[in-house]
Design brief:
The structure is a single chain. The strands form four sheets. Strands 1, 2, 3, 4, 5, 6 and 17 form a seven-stranded mixed β-sheet that branches. The chain has a five-stranded parallel β-sheet with strand order 8-15-9-10-11. It has a three-stranded antiparallel β-sheet with strand order 12-13-14, with no helix packed on it. Helix 3 packs parallel to helix 9. Helix 3 links the parallel strand 1 and strand 2. It folds into two domains: 203 residues, 3-Layer(bba) Sandwich (FAD/NAD(P)-binding domain), CATH 3.50.50.60; 116 residues, FAD/NAD(P)-binding domain (3-Layer(bba) Sandwich). By secondary structure, it is α/β, with parallel strands linked by helices.
């Protein structure tokens, strides 16, 4: 029975030659091997990944986009996006990223579901390994895996996340809570920054923090505490995010960690601000990262990594802005460099 070796070009070619396979078997193998050796693979299908895919596809590279367990990325959980250029009446987050997807496919991008859990990027032939045992090979790789908000895990949080009162981005969703009472959960710089930003729109902002002082830098803590719209709820943790009869958030149940007293804070929005986790575990030991796991870029570029022909775009590298437009722009940069 003829044997066809599947896998990356060089390794499988040598195996076939060593096996002294018939010429017709080698011909079939090489045809399949060439199909599996990609010019560029883009990991991630959010704004960064689709931005890269559009530019690579228009350059004739026929990019393969590997999307994980959340096609379209975090933006698909946002009901309305009001700050993406070109949409004065706002656009649904899912619709926005799906338009990018269709645009990339129109120019020749291919999309496949695969969760990458391991990589070998050191050689000219980059290898990616999925959790179902598949192996992908490419000359160039663009990593656009994004990040995931660190959530509290309390009851009601997941149910109300993404348009029903729970958010992890004040910049994205703050304007929807104009003249309403909201809550921020956290105590670091991010929580204080989010709270101060929300005062531009909201009637009041309460910050729930498990300690009796913020972990934030002194200047950010003072800025938050001096704002008349902000009130700190010290020594407390959220126990549950409460749903109203309309299916939207109506408040937060909190417990004082010192007295164990339980109370409710009425509010229309809850902003989780306890940090993000970059989705970069598959590349640890391969790419240079900071202490939090965000992939570092070279000083002369926003998207080049320490490995040649490996680029990064979006929230897996950017922990400052975390916006759809900045992720798309980084994807554009990576796509242009990969196709040059």
């Amino acid at each position: 029975m003829p044997i066809i070796y599947l896998g990356c070009w060089q390794k499988s070619r040598n195996a076939c030659l060593n096996f002294l396979a018939p010429a017709n078997v080698l011909r079939i193998y090489f045809e399949k091997a060439e199909k599996h050796m990609e010019e560029v693979i883009i990991i991630g299908s959010g704004c960064a990944g689709m931005g890269a895919a559009i530019y690579c596809a228009r350059a004739g590279m026929s990019p393969l986009v590997l999307e994980g367990s959340q096609p379209g990325g975090l933006l698909t959980t946002t009901s309305d996006v009001e700050n993406f250029p070109g949409f004065p009446e706002a656009v649904n987050g899912f619709d926005l990223v799906w338009r990018m997807r269709e645009q990339a496919q129109k120019f020749g991008a291919r999309i496949e579901t695969a969760i990458i859990e391991k990589s070998d990027l050191s050689a000219p032939e980059k290898k990616l390994y999925s959790n179902d045992g598949r192996e992908f090979c490419a000359s160039k790789v663009i990593i656009a895996t994004g990040s995931s908000p660190r959530m509290t895990g309390v009851p009601g949080e997941a149910e109300l996340y993404g348009g029903k009162g729970v958010s992890a981005c004040a910049t994205c969703d703050g304007a929807f809570y104009r003249d309403k009472d909201v809550v921020v959960i956290g105590g670091g710089d991010t929580a204080c920054e989010e709270a101060v930003f929300l005062t531009r729109f909201c009637k009041s902002v309460k910050i729930i923090h498990r300690r009796n002082e913020f972990r934030a830098s002194k200047i950010m803590a003072e800025r938050a505490l001096s704002n008349p719209k902000i009130e700190a709820v010290w020594d407390s943790v959220a126990e549950e995010i409460l749903k109203g009869d309309d299916g939207f958030c109506r408040g937060v149940k909190v417990k004082n960690v010192k007295t164990q007293a339980v109370s409710e804070i009425p509010c229309k929005g809850v902003f989780i601000a306890i940090g993000h986790v970059p989705n970069t575990a598959a590349f640890k030991g391969e790419l240079e990262m900071d202490s939090e796991g965000y992939i570092k870029h070279l000083p002369d570029s926003l998207v080049k990594t320490n490995i040649e022909n490996v680029y990064v775009a979006g929230d897996c590298s950017d922990k400052v802005f975390r916006q759809a437009i900045t992720a798309s722009a980084m994807g554009c940069m990576a796509g242009i460099l990969a196709s040059s």
